[in-house]
Amino acid sequence: MKSWLIALILIVSCSSLKAQSNRLLAAKDFYAEYTSVKTAMLIDIRTPAEYSKGFILNAVNMDYYDDDFRQKIQSIDTAQVLFVYCQSGGRSAEAVEWMRSNGYRHVYELKGGYKGWKQAKLPLNELFTPTDKISKEAFDQAVSSGKVLVDFYAPWCGPCKKMEPYLKEIESKYGDAVKVLRINVDENVYLSNQLKVKAIPLLHIYQDGKKVWVYNSYISRNKLFKVLGIQER
After folding, report:
1. Exposed, middle or buried, 4 (CB in 10 Å: 0-12/13-18/19+)?
2. Catalytically annotated residues
């Protein structure tokens, strides 16, 4: 009986280790797995300078060397399926190990990194060209007059989702006093880099074009209303 139990434990352990090791995927397997998961998130953990020279299509840049890297990752739901890569595999191995130790169980790593992806001749964006929905010029114009609350967010950001209802409330009920500008950082990568957005949620308040307040974390409805000087109707 004991021998049978030990054998079963060994089989389960080996299977678990195999499943874990299979999450380090060669480029073509990584691509196939990523494209099969509609809600997957692709994270490029190289520096902005590396990212600007070329990246895998739809990848979000979160610099592993950034002081806020872990904070950015922790803003993502632990149930989210994540696909991670760096330049050649060193940084991604460290990052993925940390992610798994912090509750992220659905993490896949690209073997050989961006170099391996290019060698496999898979889809990429060779040169960084601004494809933002909001240009820097349009942003400057939007915050140039009156009081403007700027919300930098992403669909995958848990704290951002919690704040969304009362940001929309401010926009609909108090728009005459405070204009709300919501910027999806995934859709406005170039603008976010220009404005030095390092982590989300991030809120700015502009008064007649001048930035007068910054808050780089979750904020409650009551506290935000107080900061904005909103008297409830």
Report:
1. exposed
2. 157, 160
